[in-house]
Amino acid sequence: MSGQRADRRLTYAAVACGVALAVAGAGDTAPRTGHTPPKAAPAAPGTGGRTTSASGSARAVLQLRSALHFFYLPRYSAPAGAPFAPEYRIVLHAPEQAVRKVAVSFDLSVFKGKADVYGVPKGYGCVRSGFHVNCALGDVRTGESPDFLPFHVKPKPDTAPGPAGAVTVTVRSANAPTIRHTTQVIVGSPYLTSRQDFRRITGVRPGGPVSITPAFGNKGDTGVTGGITLMLSTDEATLPLRYRNCRYDKAVGATRAQCDLPGPLPAGAAFETAGPVTAVADRTAKSGTVDYGVWRTADLDPLSRLPASAPRGTGEPLRLRPVDGGAFTGILARRSESAGARVEFDTTGKYDVEAVGFTIEGGVGQVVDTQVPYPRGYGWGAGGGYDDLWVTLPEGVSLVEVDPESHSGDFLYCRPGPRRGGPVACPGPEAGGTLLRVRIDRRVQGARGSVTAPSDRAVDPDQSDNTAPVAVRYLP
Fold first, then answer.
1. pLDDT tens-digit map of 288-297
2. What's the pLDDT band for 153 if we cut at 50, 70, 90?
3. Domain hosting residue 389, numbered range
4. What DSSP letter does each residue of 129-181 carry, written as one string?
5. Same domain flag for 205 and 335
6. How far apart are CA 389 and CA 427, in angstroms?
7. 340 and 362 share one domain
8. Each residue of 13-61: pLDDT tens digit?
9. Number of domain units in the chain
10. Is residue 330 part of a domain?
11. How far is the CA of 119 from the CAs of 156, 158, 347, 418, 447, in angstroms?
Protein backbone atom coordinates (compact mmCIF):
# COMPACT_ATOMS: atom_id res chain seq x y z
CA MET A 1 0.00 0.00 0.00
CA SER A 2 2.92 2.35 0.66
CA GLY A 3 3.85 2.23 -3.03
CA GLN A 4 0.31 3.17 -3.99
CA ARG A 5 0.35 6.12 -1.60
CA ALA A 6 3.71 7.25 -2.86
CA ASP A 7 2.40 7.20 -6.43
CA ARG A 8 -0.45 9.43 -5.40
CA ARG A 9 1.65 12.03 -3.68
CA LEU A 10 2.43 15.31 -5.29
CA THR A 11 6.18 15.57 -5.50
CA TYR A 12 8.08 18.73 -5.59
CA ALA A 13 10.20 18.37 -8.76
CA ALA A 14 11.41 21.43 -10.38
CA VAL A 15 12.57 20.88 -13.90
CA ALA A 16 12.61 24.28 -15.58
CA CYS A 17 15.51 26.74 -15.61
CA GLY A 18 15.26 30.50 -15.42
CA VAL A 19 13.82 33.43 -13.55
CA ALA A 20 10.57 35.28 -14.09
CA LEU A 21 10.88 38.58 -15.87
CA ALA A 22 8.08 40.87 -16.95
CA VAL A 23 8.49 43.90 -19.16
CA ALA A 24 5.83 46.49 -19.90
CA GLY A 25 6.02 49.60 -22.01
CA ALA A 26 6.13 53.09 -20.58
CA GLY A 27 2.83 54.02 -19.00
CA ASP A 28 1.56 50.44 -18.95
CA THR A 29 0.50 48.79 -15.72
CA ALA A 30 2.46 45.73 -14.63
CA PRO A 31 0.84 42.58 -16.03
CA ARG A 32 -0.33 39.77 -13.79
CA THR A 33 2.46 37.22 -13.41
CA GLY A 34 1.99 36.00 -9.86
CA HIS A 35 4.18 38.81 -8.52
CA THR A 36 4.49 42.51 -9.23
CA PRO A 37 7.49 43.07 -11.52
CA PRO A 38 9.21 46.37 -12.19
CA LYS A 39 8.91 48.00 -15.60
CA ALA A 40 12.26 46.51 -16.52
CA ALA A 41 13.43 43.55 -14.45
CA PRO A 42 16.96 44.18 -13.15
CA ALA A 43 19.77 41.73 -13.59
CA ALA A 44 20.95 39.75 -10.59
CA PRO A 45 23.41 41.70 -8.42
CA GLY A 46 26.90 41.73 -9.82
CA THR A 47 25.99 40.43 -13.27
CA GLY A 48 26.48 43.60 -15.22
CA GLY A 49 23.60 42.45 -17.40
CA ARG A 50 20.29 44.21 -17.83
CA THR A 51 16.81 43.71 -19.13
CA THR A 52 15.15 46.78 -20.60
CA SER A 53 12.08 47.68 -22.59
CA ALA A 54 11.91 50.18 -25.39
CA SER A 55 9.81 53.23 -24.84
CA GLY A 56 6.59 53.45 -26.80
CA SER A 57 2.83 53.62 -26.57
CA ALA A 58 2.01 50.18 -27.97
CA ARG A 59 -1.02 48.68 -26.29
CA ALA A 60 0.10 45.06 -26.34
CA VAL A 61 2.35 43.60 -23.67
CA LEU A 62 4.73 40.70 -24.18
CA GLN A 63 6.44 39.17 -21.15
CA LEU A 64 9.77 37.40 -21.03
CA ARG A 65 8.83 34.98 -18.29
CA SER A 66 11.98 32.89 -18.23
CA ALA A 67 15.55 33.56 -19.30
CA LEU A 68 18.76 32.72 -17.46
CA HIS A 69 20.79 35.42 -15.74
CA PHE A 70 23.87 33.16 -15.59
CA PHE A 71 24.93 30.45 -18.02
CA TYR A 72 27.67 28.17 -16.70
CA LEU A 73 29.57 26.54 -19.57
CA PRO A 74 31.18 23.35 -18.19
CA ARG A 75 34.80 22.78 -19.10
CA TYR A 76 35.84 20.09 -21.56
CA SER A 77 37.86 17.41 -19.79
CA ALA A 78 39.75 14.55 -21.48
CA PRO A 79 39.10 11.66 -21.67
CA ALA A 80 35.47 12.28 -20.66
CA GLY A 81 35.07 14.83 -23.44
CA ALA A 82 32.46 17.56 -23.56
CA PRO A 83 29.98 17.45 -20.65
CA PHE A 84 26.35 18.43 -21.01
CA ALA A 85 25.84 22.17 -20.93
CA PRO A 86 22.68 23.50 -19.24
CA GLU A 87 19.57 24.15 -21.28
CA TYR A 88 18.91 27.73 -22.33
CA ARG A 89 15.14 28.04 -22.12
CA ILE A 90 13.04 30.98 -23.24
CA VAL A 91 9.41 31.43 -22.15
CA LEU A 92 7.31 34.30 -23.49
CA HIS A 93 3.73 35.19 -22.58
CA ALA A 94 1.01 37.44 -24.02
CA PRO A 95 -1.26 38.14 -21.02
CA GLU A 96 -3.76 40.65 -22.35
CA GLN A 97 -4.01 40.61 -26.13
CA ALA A 98 -2.37 39.04 -29.17
CA VAL A 99 1.16 40.16 -30.00
CA ARG A 100 1.89 40.21 -33.73
CA LYS A 101 4.98 39.18 -35.66
CA VAL A 102 7.11 38.17 -32.69
CA ALA A 103 10.78 37.62 -33.49
CA VAL A 104 13.57 36.70 -31.06
CA SER A 105 17.26 37.10 -31.86
CA PHE A 106 20.22 35.70 -29.93
CA ASP A 107 23.75 37.05 -30.23
CA LEU A 108 25.95 34.10 -29.25
CA SER A 109 29.30 35.62 -30.17
CA VAL A 110 30.47 34.92 -26.62
CA PHE A 111 30.75 31.22 -27.56
CA LYS A 112 33.28 31.76 -30.37
CA GLY A 113 36.25 29.51 -29.69
CA LYS A 114 34.58 28.21 -26.54
CA ALA A 115 31.65 26.07 -27.70
CA ASP A 116 29.86 24.74 -30.76
CA VAL A 117 26.26 25.87 -31.27
CA TYR A 118 23.78 23.25 -32.51
CA GLY A 119 20.20 21.98 -32.16
CA VAL A 120 18.30 25.01 -33.46
CA PRO A 121 14.52 24.24 -33.41
CA LYS A 122 12.95 24.79 -36.82
CA GLY A 123 9.48 24.40 -35.33
CA TYR A 124 9.80 27.88 -33.82
CA GLY A 125 11.07 29.39 -37.03
CA CYS A 126 14.65 29.44 -35.76
CA VAL A 127 17.58 29.79 -38.15
CA ARG A 128 21.27 29.93 -37.24
CA SER A 129 23.89 31.95 -39.05
CA GLY A 130 27.28 31.53 -37.43
CA PHE A 131 26.89 32.63 -33.83
CA HIS A 132 23.54 34.32 -34.34
CA VAL A 133 20.15 32.60 -33.99
CA ASN A 134 16.94 34.26 -35.18
CA CYS A 135 13.51 32.82 -34.38
CA ALA A 136 10.41 34.06 -36.22
CA LEU A 137 7.58 32.96 -33.93
CA GLY A 138 4.84 34.84 -35.74
CA ASP A 139 1.75 35.90 -33.81
CA VAL A 140 1.39 34.98 -30.13
CA ARG A 141 -2.28 34.79 -29.22
CA THR A 142 -3.74 36.02 -25.95
CA GLY A 143 -2.81 33.68 -23.11
CA GLU A 144 -0.24 31.75 -25.14
CA SER A 145 3.23 31.08 -23.69
CA PRO A 146 5.80 29.95 -26.27
CA ASP A 147 8.37 27.82 -24.42
CA PHE A 148 11.40 26.65 -26.37
CA LEU A 149 15.13 25.91 -26.39
CA PRO A 150 16.55 28.15 -29.14
CA PHE A 151 19.95 26.46 -29.21
CA HIS A 152 22.31 24.02 -27.51
CA VAL A 153 26.04 24.35 -26.97
CA LYS A 154 28.86 21.83 -26.72
CA PRO A 155 32.01 22.99 -24.90
CA LYS A 156 35.37 22.97 -26.67
CA PRO A 157 38.65 21.94 -25.04
CA ASP A 158 41.26 24.32 -23.61
CA THR A 159 38.85 27.09 -22.66
CA ALA A 160 40.04 29.39 -19.88
CA PRO A 161 37.79 29.42 -16.81
CA GLY A 162 36.02 32.52 -15.58
CA PRO A 163 33.67 35.22 -16.91
CA ALA A 164 33.52 35.13 -20.71
CA GLY A 165 30.98 37.75 -21.74
CA ALA A 166 27.26 37.69 -22.35
CA VAL A 167 24.50 36.27 -24.53
CA THR A 168 22.25 39.07 -25.76
CA VAL A 169 18.55 38.40 -26.35
CA THR A 170 16.28 40.81 -28.24
CA VAL A 171 12.52 40.26 -28.58
CA ARG A 172 10.73 42.40 -31.17
CA SER A 173 7.13 42.50 -32.36
CA ALA A 174 4.77 44.66 -34.39
CA ASN A 175 2.67 45.97 -31.51
CA ALA A 176 4.55 45.53 -28.21
CA PRO A 177 7.68 47.16 -26.79
CA THR A 178 11.05 45.59 -27.53
CA ILE A 179 12.55 43.46 -24.77
CA ARG A 180 16.30 43.14 -24.25
CA HIS A 181 17.97 40.74 -21.86
CA THR A 182 21.57 39.71 -21.21
CA THR A 183 22.84 36.46 -19.74
CA GLN A 184 26.32 36.40 -18.25
CA VAL A 185 28.39 33.42 -19.47
CA ILE A 186 30.91 31.88 -17.08
CA VAL A 187 33.30 29.12 -18.18
CA GLY A 188 33.28 26.47 -15.49
CA SER A 189 30.40 24.96 -13.60
CA PRO A 190 29.13 24.56 -10.06
CA TYR A 191 27.92 21.06 -9.24
CA LEU A 192 25.16 21.44 -6.69
CA THR A 193 24.79 18.47 -4.36
CA SER A 194 22.66 17.57 -1.35
CA ARG A 195 22.61 15.21 1.59
CA GLN A 196 20.83 11.99 0.65
CA ASP A 197 21.33 9.62 3.60
CA PHE A 198 18.07 10.46 5.36
CA ARG A 199 16.36 7.56 7.09
CA ARG A 200 12.62 7.16 7.10
CA ILE A 201 11.22 8.83 10.22
CA THR A 202 8.82 6.57 12.13
CA GLY A 203 6.58 6.94 15.15
CA VAL A 204 5.56 10.53 14.40
CA ARG A 205 2.52 11.55 16.40
CA PRO A 206 -0.33 12.89 14.21
CA GLY A 207 -0.14 16.64 14.68
CA GLY A 208 3.42 16.28 15.95
CA PRO A 209 6.78 17.58 14.67
CA VAL A 210 8.76 16.19 11.72
CA SER A 211 12.30 17.58 11.77
CA ILE A 212 15.03 17.38 9.13
CA THR A 213 18.33 19.20 8.59
CA PRO A 214 18.75 20.15 4.92
CA ALA A 215 22.33 20.22 3.67
CA PHE A 216 23.91 21.05 0.33
CA GLY A 217 27.26 21.68 -1.29
CA ASN A 218 29.17 22.50 -4.46
CA LYS A 219 31.44 19.83 -5.95
CA GLY A 220 32.05 21.78 -9.15
CA ASP A 221 35.08 23.75 -10.28
CA THR A 222 33.35 27.13 -10.07
CA GLY A 223 31.59 28.97 -7.26
CA VAL A 224 27.99 30.13 -7.39
CA THR A 225 27.70 33.86 -7.94
CA GLY A 226 25.04 35.42 -5.74
CA GLY A 227 22.79 33.75 -3.22
CA ILE A 228 21.33 30.29 -2.73
CA THR A 229 17.63 29.54 -2.34
CA LEU A 230 16.33 26.62 -0.30
CA MET A 231 12.87 25.44 -1.38
CA LEU A 232 10.81 23.35 1.04
CA SER A 233 7.62 21.40 0.33
CA THR A 234 5.53 18.93 2.29
CA ASP A 235 2.87 16.29 1.78
CA GLU A 236 0.60 15.39 4.72
CA ALA A 237 2.35 18.06 6.80
CA THR A 238 2.49 21.84 7.08
CA LEU A 239 5.23 24.42 7.63
CA PRO A 240 4.99 26.94 10.49
CA LEU A 241 5.85 30.51 9.47
CA ARG A 242 9.06 30.53 11.49
CA TYR A 243 11.95 32.07 9.55
CA ARG A 244 11.88 35.72 8.53
CA ASN A 245 14.07 35.12 5.46
CA CYS A 246 11.51 32.59 4.16
CA ARG A 247 8.32 33.21 2.20
CA TYR A 248 5.42 30.78 2.50
CA ASP A 249 2.61 29.90 0.12
CA LYS A 250 -0.09 30.39 2.78
CA ALA A 251 -0.39 32.21 6.08
CA VAL A 252 -2.00 29.13 7.65
CA GLY A 253 -1.34 25.54 6.61
CA ALA A 254 1.64 26.36 4.38
CA THR A 255 3.05 23.46 2.38
CA ARG A 256 5.76 25.37 0.45
CA ALA A 257 8.49 27.77 1.51
CA GLN A 258 11.19 29.74 -0.28
CA CYS A 259 14.18 30.64 1.90
CA ASP A 260 16.71 33.01 0.33
CA LEU A 261 20.19 32.59 1.81
CA PRO A 262 23.26 34.77 1.29
CA GLY A 263 26.03 33.55 -0.99
CA PRO A 264 28.41 32.88 -2.42
CA LEU A 265 28.72 29.08 -2.51
CA PRO A 266 32.39 28.47 -3.36
CA ALA A 267 33.59 25.34 -5.12
CA GLY A 268 34.27 22.65 -2.53
CA ALA A 269 32.07 24.22 0.15
CA ALA A 270 29.10 22.59 1.88
CA PHE A 271 26.60 23.83 4.44
CA GLU A 272 23.66 22.62 6.49
CA THR A 273 20.97 24.60 8.25
CA ALA A 274 22.13 25.75 11.69
CA GLY A 275 19.29 23.79 13.23
CA PRO A 276 16.60 21.39 12.07
CA VAL A 277 13.72 22.61 9.94
CA THR A 278 10.48 21.40 11.49
CA ALA A 279 7.18 20.62 9.80
CA VAL A 280 3.98 19.56 11.56
CA ALA A 281 2.32 16.30 10.54
CA ASP A 282 -1.36 16.57 9.67
CA ARG A 283 -3.64 15.20 12.38
CA THR A 284 -5.06 12.72 9.86
CA ALA A 285 -1.68 11.77 8.38
CA LYS A 286 -0.66 8.13 8.07
CA SER A 287 2.60 8.94 6.30
CA GLY A 288 4.04 11.83 4.35
CA THR A 289 7.09 13.56 2.95
CA VAL A 290 9.25 16.63 3.45
CA ASP A 291 11.22 17.67 0.35
CA TYR A 292 13.90 20.28 -0.09
CA GLY A 293 15.70 21.63 -3.11
CA VAL A 294 18.57 24.05 -3.49
CA TRP A 295 18.80 26.51 -6.39
CA ARG A 296 20.91 29.44 -7.47
CA THR A 297 18.78 32.41 -6.38
CA ALA A 298 19.37 34.36 -9.58
CA ASP A 299 17.97 31.52 -11.69
CA LEU A 300 15.35 29.96 -9.45
CA ASP A 301 12.74 27.94 -11.32
CA PRO A 302 10.00 30.50 -12.15
CA LEU A 303 7.23 27.97 -11.54
CA SER A 304 8.47 27.46 -7.97
CA ARG A 305 9.24 31.06 -7.06
CA LEU A 306 6.85 32.56 -4.52
CA PRO A 307 5.70 36.17 -5.00
CA ALA A 308 7.29 38.97 -2.99
CA SER A 309 3.89 39.53 -1.38
CA ALA A 310 3.78 35.99 0.04
CA PRO A 311 3.57 35.69 3.86
CA ARG A 312 6.92 35.76 5.65
CA GLY A 313 8.09 34.09 8.82
CA THR A 314 8.21 36.11 12.01
CA GLY A 315 11.14 34.56 13.88
CA GLU A 316 14.90 34.49 13.55
CA PRO A 317 16.33 33.99 10.04
CA LEU A 318 17.28 30.55 8.82
CA ARG A 319 21.07 30.34 9.06
CA LEU A 320 23.76 27.99 7.75
CA ARG A 321 26.87 26.37 9.19
CA PRO A 322 29.75 24.64 7.38
CA VAL A 323 29.66 20.86 7.11
CA ASP A 324 31.57 18.07 5.38
CA GLY A 325 29.81 17.51 2.05
CA GLY A 326 32.01 14.69 0.79
CA ALA A 327 29.11 12.22 0.72
CA PHE A 328 26.63 14.58 -0.91
CA THR A 329 25.42 13.80 -4.44
CA GLY A 330 23.66 15.69 -7.21
CA ILE A 331 22.12 15.26 -10.65
CA LEU A 332 24.59 15.36 -13.52
CA ALA A 333 21.91 16.35 -16.04
CA ARG A 334 21.34 19.66 -14.22
CA ARG A 335 24.52 19.92 -12.20
CA SER A 336 24.72 23.72 -12.18
CA GLU A 337 21.03 24.32 -11.57
CA SER A 338 19.62 22.44 -8.58
CA ALA A 339 19.85 19.52 -6.18
CA GLY A 340 17.55 18.15 -3.52
CA ALA A 341 16.34 15.29 -1.36
CA ARG A 342 13.20 13.78 0.13
CA VAL A 343 12.53 12.57 3.66
CA GLU A 344 9.62 10.18 4.26
CA PHE A 345 7.83 9.78 7.56
CA ASP A 346 5.25 7.47 9.11
CA THR A 347 2.93 8.42 11.93
CA THR A 348 1.70 6.24 14.76
CA GLY A 349 -1.53 5.99 12.76
CA LYS A 350 0.21 4.33 9.83
CA TYR A 351 -1.57 1.00 10.27
CA ASP A 352 -4.96 2.52 11.07
CA VAL A 353 -6.87 1.64 7.91
CA GLU A 354 -9.45 4.31 7.06
CA ALA A 355 -12.09 3.80 4.38
CA VAL A 356 -12.74 6.74 2.04
CA GLY A 357 -16.33 7.50 1.12
CA PHE A 358 -17.52 8.56 -2.33
CA THR A 359 -20.56 9.79 -4.26
CA ILE A 360 -22.35 8.17 -7.21
CA GLU A 361 -23.56 10.84 -9.66
CA GLY A 362 -26.01 10.49 -12.54
CA GLY A 363 -29.58 10.74 -13.73
CA VAL A 364 -32.33 8.22 -13.10
CA GLY A 365 -32.10 5.46 -15.71
CA GLN A 366 -28.43 6.13 -16.46
CA VAL A 367 -25.57 3.64 -16.21
CA VAL A 368 -22.53 5.33 -14.70
CA ASP A 369 -18.98 4.46 -13.66
CA THR A 370 -17.68 5.75 -10.33
CA GLN A 371 -14.15 5.37 -9.01
CA VAL A 372 -13.91 3.60 -5.68
CA PRO A 373 -11.13 5.31 -3.68
CA TYR A 374 -8.62 3.08 -1.96
CA PRO A 375 -8.41 3.33 1.83
CA ARG A 376 -5.88 5.41 3.69
CA GLY A 377 -3.32 3.75 5.93
CA TYR A 378 -1.26 0.59 5.64
CA GLY A 379 -2.43 -2.95 6.25
CA TRP A 380 -5.60 -2.99 4.13
CA GLY A 381 -6.69 -6.62 4.00
CA ALA A 382 -7.71 -8.95 6.80
CA GLY A 383 -4.95 -11.44 6.07
CA GLY A 384 -2.09 -8.96 6.00
CA GLY A 385 -2.37 -8.59 2.22
CA TYR A 386 -4.71 -6.69 -0.07
CA ASP A 387 -8.36 -7.66 0.02
CA ASP A 388 -11.62 -6.66 -1.64
CA LEU A 389 -13.38 -3.50 -0.60
CA TRP A 390 -17.04 -4.18 0.16
CA VAL A 391 -19.61 -1.69 -1.10
CA THR A 392 -23.21 -1.73 0.08
CA LEU A 393 -25.12 0.08 -2.67
CA PRO A 394 -27.59 2.84 -1.78
CA GLU A 395 -31.27 2.01 -2.21
CA GLY A 396 -32.42 2.55 -5.80
CA VAL A 397 -29.00 1.71 -7.28
CA SER A 398 -28.08 -1.67 -8.79
CA LEU A 399 -24.77 -3.19 -9.88
CA VAL A 400 -24.01 -3.60 -13.59
CA GLU A 401 -21.56 -6.47 -13.91
CA VAL A 402 -18.64 -5.96 -16.32
CA ASP A 403 -16.94 -8.89 -18.02
CA PRO A 404 -13.18 -8.56 -17.31
CA GLU A 405 -12.49 -9.56 -20.93
CA SER A 406 -14.69 -6.77 -22.31
CA HIS A 407 -12.27 -3.94 -21.64
CA SER A 408 -8.57 -3.22 -21.72
CA GLY A 409 -6.63 -0.99 -19.37
CA ASP A 410 -4.98 -1.02 -15.99
CA PHE A 411 -8.20 -0.72 -13.98
CA LEU A 412 -10.64 -3.14 -12.35
CA TYR A 413 -14.43 -3.32 -11.98
CA CYS A 414 -16.48 -4.30 -8.96
CA ARG A 415 -18.27 -7.67 -9.14
CA PRO A 416 -21.19 -9.31 -7.32
CA GLY A 417 -20.48 -10.51 -3.79
CA PRO A 418 -21.19 -14.03 -2.55
CA ARG A 419 -24.60 -13.12 -1.13
CA ARG A 420 -27.43 -12.05 -3.43
CA GLY A 421 -28.45 -8.51 -2.58
CA GLY A 422 -25.46 -8.11 -0.28
CA PRO A 423 -22.35 -5.96 -0.61
CA VAL A 424 -20.49 -6.01 -3.93
CA ALA A 425 -16.77 -6.86 -4.04
CA CYS A 426 -14.39 -4.22 -5.37
CA PRO A 427 -10.88 -5.62 -5.94
CA GLY A 428 -7.64 -3.67 -5.85
CA PRO A 429 -5.31 -2.02 -5.85
CA GLU A 430 -4.58 -1.39 -9.52
CA ALA A 431 -2.63 1.44 -11.14
CA GLY A 432 -5.70 2.78 -12.95
CA GLY A 433 -7.99 2.32 -9.96
CA THR A 434 -11.18 0.35 -9.33
CA LEU A 435 -14.49 1.33 -10.94
CA LEU A 436 -18.04 0.65 -9.82
CA ARG A 437 -20.57 0.43 -12.68
CA VAL A 438 -24.16 0.89 -11.57
CA ARG A 439 -27.61 1.74 -12.89
CA ILE A 440 -29.53 4.46 -11.07
CA ASP A 441 -32.94 2.78 -11.12
CA ARG A 442 -34.97 5.33 -9.17
CA ARG A 443 -34.65 8.36 -6.95
CA VAL A 444 -34.71 7.58 -3.23
CA GLN A 445 -34.52 10.59 -0.97
CA GLY A 446 -31.61 10.28 1.47
CA ALA A 447 -30.37 7.02 -0.06
CA ARG A 448 -27.06 6.02 1.45
CA GLY A 449 -24.73 3.06 1.23
CA SER A 450 -21.29 2.30 2.60
CA VAL A 451 -17.79 1.11 1.71
CA THR A 452 -15.80 -1.09 4.09
CA ALA A 453 -12.05 -1.76 4.05
CA PRO A 454 -11.20 -4.88 6.08
CA SER A 455 -8.03 -4.98 8.18
CA ASP A 456 -6.35 -7.21 10.75
CA ARG A 457 -7.77 -6.35 14.18
CA ALA A 458 -4.52 -7.40 15.82
CA VAL A 459 -2.69 -4.64 13.94
CA ASP A 460 -5.57 -2.18 13.57
CA PRO A 461 -7.66 -2.43 16.74
CA ASP A 462 -9.61 0.75 15.94
CA GLN A 463 -12.17 -0.47 13.40
CA SER A 464 -14.44 2.57 13.77
CA ASP A 465 -13.09 4.23 10.62
CA ASN A 466 -12.97 1.12 8.43
CA THR A 467 -16.39 2.00 6.99
CA ALA A 468 -17.33 5.23 5.19
CA PRO A 469 -20.55 6.47 3.54
CA VAL A 470 -21.53 6.16 -0.12
CA ALA A 471 -23.97 8.84 -1.28
CA VAL A 472 -26.00 9.47 -4.45
CA ARG A 473 -26.24 12.80 -6.26
CA TYR A 474 -29.06 12.86 -8.79
CA LEU A 475 -28.43 14.86 -11.93
CA PRO A 476 -31.16 16.27 -14.21
1. 999 999 999 9
2. very high
3. 358-474
4. ETTEEEEEEEEE-TT---EE---EEEEPSSPPPEEEEEEEEEEE-SSS--EEE
5. yes
6. 6
7. no
8. 332 333 232 333 332 322 222 222 323 333 333 333 333 333 344 489 9
9. 3
10. yes
11. 16, 23, 49, 62, 62
pLDDT of residue 334: 76
Asked, for residue 385, whether it belongs to a domain, the answer is yes
Please provide the DSSP assignment of 290-305 as one string.
Answer: EEEEEEEGGG--TTTP
Beta-carbon contacts of 463 under 8 Å, excluding residues fewer than 6 positions away, are 455, 457
In-domain check, residue 22:
no
**Do 114 and 178 sit in the same domain of this protein?**
yes
Listed residues 151, 169, 187: the one ending a domain: 187
Q: How confident is the model at residue 380 (pLDDT cuts 50, 70, 90)?
A: confident
343, 204: one domain: yes
Q: Which residues pair with 238 in a beta bridge?
A: 280
pLDDT, residue 379, reads 79
Q: Would you say 345 and 353 are in contact if contact means Cβ atoms under 8 Å apart? A: no
Same domain, 194 and 343: yes
Residues sharing a CB contact under 8 Å with residue 263, sequence separation 6 or more, in sequence order: 224, 225, 226, 227, 228, 297
Can you give the C-alpha Rg of the chain in angstroms? Answer: 28
CATH number at residue 296: 2.60.40.10
Domain end among 137, 152, 187: 187
For the segment 194-210, the average pLDDT, to the nearest whole number, is: 96
Cis bond upstream, residue 454 (ω within 30)? no
> Does position 176 have pLDDT exceeding 70, yes or no?
yes
148 and 198 in a single domain? The answer is: no
Contact 103, 126 (CB under 8 A): no
Which range among 18-27, 83-92, 262-271, 279-288 shows the weakest confidence by mean pLDDT? 18-27
How do strand 115-118 and strand 209-212 relate by DSSP bridges?
unpaired
Residue 332 has pLDDT above 90, yes or no: no
Q: Report if residue 222 sits inside a domain.
A: yes
Do residues 145 and 198 both lie within one domain? no
Kindly report the CA angle at 285 between 281 and 291, in degrees rounded to 5? 55
Predicted TM-score (pTM) of this structure: 0.73
Strands 412-413, 434-440: pairing is parallel
